[in-house]
Structures are given as structure tokens and as C-alpha cells.
């Protein structure tokens, strides 16, 4: 009786995914964007199928090579990716901080205008006659901080034992998101000096005092971090006609934020004509100017 001839042994097939992973991994050194990560993914899937094929598939070496080359090329290009994305991330963060700061200044200006409606005058930079506290304390009732306002001893200096204890309770509207400052410090300062909106700081201007127009007169600036003051201290930004942007423009690229007496807040670019800035820093200079 003739013997039974056994069927020929089945030769294991090479995993197509493993081959594809290897090819993509090699190509990833030339076009990593399209092939590096797919090489890693296909290689992992190929290894999983090979391990579960019970010897019917081979190519684990190709899959591992594809994973390795795809990962290496991706890691090599990672610093370049970070370098390309970092400016965009920084620009987005700066835009967010700038918008937050503009919103703070708008709230401050709204409080100033509400104060003016109630008193027929803006608050004095130094708090008014007999006061030794800043205008920021005076507008507390107009930024929903009546309870904090009532805690101050208005007849005492800003740095008296009692009043100094309240510095740490600075409302968030006075905190500049672009300035890394200790709690209680602010860079939102009124414009003071001869001819400016708030003059020597002892009296507050009325609407009639803005002969150049409220829309053309800067009253509030976002000063540099080194010009920051305790928010209760009656000290602000001193305008220097010989250097109209002294102490301004270091917090953000290409310029600084300012607010006019009508409540508008805008960005003044470094390229703005100095004569235009000088004209906007005074309230009754009579200059002919174009708004930046």
C-alpha cells in the first residue's frame, strides 16, 4: 500500500504592514511630515498582527526598523517644529494679555466717567483736597468695591499702618497681566505734569477743561514695570515733553496702551509721530493732529 504524501509546508507570508512601515520609515528622513508618524503607527500594528498570526506572518524585523527610523526622524525634526511653533504661541499669548489689559483700562475709564457724572469732575490724581490716597481708591465705589472703600481711613496717608494693610486687597482691575509684579503694584497710571489732563494732581479736571477734546487727550497709560506703584499711593506717570514716551512701551512689543478721556483704549505704535503723542498728552494745546 502506497504511503500518503503529506501536503507541502505553508511558507509564512511577510506582513505588508511591516514592509510599508519600513519603507515609510526610510522615506521619513526626506519627508518626515507625511511618513514619520505613519511609519511608527504601521510598525506597531504590524508587530501586533505578526505576534497574533501563530507563525503565519513574518517581518517583525522590518516593522521594528520602520518604527525606529520613523521615531528617529520625528525626534530629529522636533526642535525645528518647536522653533516654528513657538513664535505663534508667543504671539497668541501676547494678544491675550494685551486684550486683558485693554479690558482693565476700559473698566477703569468707565469708572472715571461714572465718577465724573456723579461729581461733575474727574477725581484728582492725588485723591483731592485733604486726601493722601490715590485716585484708584476714590473710584472704588464705581468698580463695585464699596466695601473695600469703606475700610480705608481717608484722613490718613496711604502708607499709614491701617491703610498699608489694605494694599494686598488690590482689585483685579488694577493688576496688569503683562507685568510680573508683587501683589498690590499697578502700572495703570494717570498722565500728570504741566498742561496734561491731571496737571499737578491736586485737582480733578472737568469736561470743559479738555479744550482739545476728550477724544484727543490721553489720560491713562500702561506704564513700564519699573514705573509701577502701590495702587493706593498718590503717584502717577509724569509726562516729559522732551521725551514723551519715557517709561512706556517696554511691557509689550512695538508700543504701549493708552486711554483717552472719552473712555477709548487703543494701542500706540512705536512708529507714531512724536509730535502726535505730544499733542495728545496735553488737554488744551490747540494742536492740529491726526489720531494714531
- Which structural class is indicated by helix and strand composition? alpha/beta
- What is the rounded distance between the termini? 109 Å
Anisotropy-based shape: elongated
> Any idea what the radius of gyration is?
34 Å
Give the overall pLDDT as a whole number.
Answer: 84
- Mind describing the biggest β-sheet? 5 strands, mixed
Q: How many helix segments?
A: 7
Structural domain count: 2
User: N-to-C SSE series?
Assistant: EHHEHHHHEEEEEEEH
Question: Helicity, in percent?
Answer: 25-40%
- For the secondary structure, the number of strands is 9
Low-confidence stretches: none
Sheet with the most strands: spatial strand order = 7-4-5-8-9
Measured by DSSP, the beta-strand proportion falls in: 5-15%
Word description of this protein:
- This protein is of the alpha/beta class.
- It folds into 2 domains: 13-85, no CATH class; 120-281, no CATH class.
- The chain contains 7 helices and 9 strands, in the order βααβααααβββββββα.
- It has a 5-stranded mixed beta sheet with strand order 7-4-5-8-9, with helices on one face. Strands 1-2 form a two-stranded parallel ribbon.
- α1 (16-27) runs antiparallel to α2, α1 (16-27) packs across α3 (60-119) and α2 (32-51) crosses α3.
Amino acid at each position: 500500500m502506497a504511503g500518503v504524501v503529506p501536503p507541502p509546508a505553508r511558507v509564512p507570508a511577510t506582513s505588508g504592514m511591516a514592509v510599508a512601515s519600513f519603507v515609510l520609515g526610510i522615506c521619513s528622513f526626506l519627508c518626515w511630515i507625511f511618513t514619520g508618524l505613519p511609519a511608527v503607527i504601521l510598525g506597531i500594528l504590524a508587530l501586533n498582527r505578526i505576534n497574533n498570526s501563530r507563525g503565519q506572518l513574518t517581518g517583525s524585523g522590518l516593522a521594528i526598523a520602520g518604527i525606529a527610523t520613523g521615531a528617529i526622524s520625528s525626534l530629529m525634526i522636533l526642535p525645528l517644529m518647536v522653533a516654528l511653533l513657538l513664535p505663534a504661541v508667543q504671539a497668541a499669548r501676547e494678544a491675550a494679555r494685551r486684550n486683558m489689559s485693554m479690558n482693565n483700562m476700559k473698566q477703569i475709564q468707565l469708572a472715571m466717567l461714572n465718577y465724573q457724572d456723579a461729581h461733575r469732575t474727574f477725581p484728582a490724581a492725588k485723591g483731592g483736597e485733604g486726601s493722601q490716597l490715590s485716585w484708584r481708591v476714590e473710584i472704588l465705589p464705581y468698580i463695585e468695591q464699596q466695601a473695600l472703600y469703606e475700610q480705608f481711613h481717608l484722613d490718613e496717608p496711604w502708607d499709614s499702618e491701617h491703610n498699608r494693610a489694605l494694599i494686598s486687597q488690590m482689585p483685579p482691575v488694577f493688576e496688569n497681566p503683562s507685568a510680573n509684579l508683587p501683589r498690590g503694584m499697578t502700572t495703570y497710571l494717570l498722565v500728570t505734569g504741566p498742561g496734561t489732563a491731571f496737571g499737578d494732581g491736586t485737582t480733578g479736571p472737568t469736561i470743559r477743561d479738555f479744550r482739545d477734546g476728550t477724544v484727543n487727550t490721553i489720560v491713562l497709560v500702561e506704564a513700564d514695570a519699573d514705573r509701577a506703584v502701590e495702587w493706593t499711593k498718590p503717584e502717577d506717570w509724569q509726562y516729559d515733553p522732551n521725551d514723551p514716551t519715557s517709561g512706556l512701551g517696554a511691557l509689550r512689543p512695538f508700543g504701549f496702551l493708552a486711554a483717552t478721556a472719552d473712555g477709548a483704549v487703543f494701542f500706540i505704535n512705536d512708529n507714531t509721530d512724536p509730535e502726535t503723542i505730544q499733542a495728545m498728552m496735553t488737554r488744551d494745546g490747540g494742536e492740529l493732529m491726526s489720531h494714531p
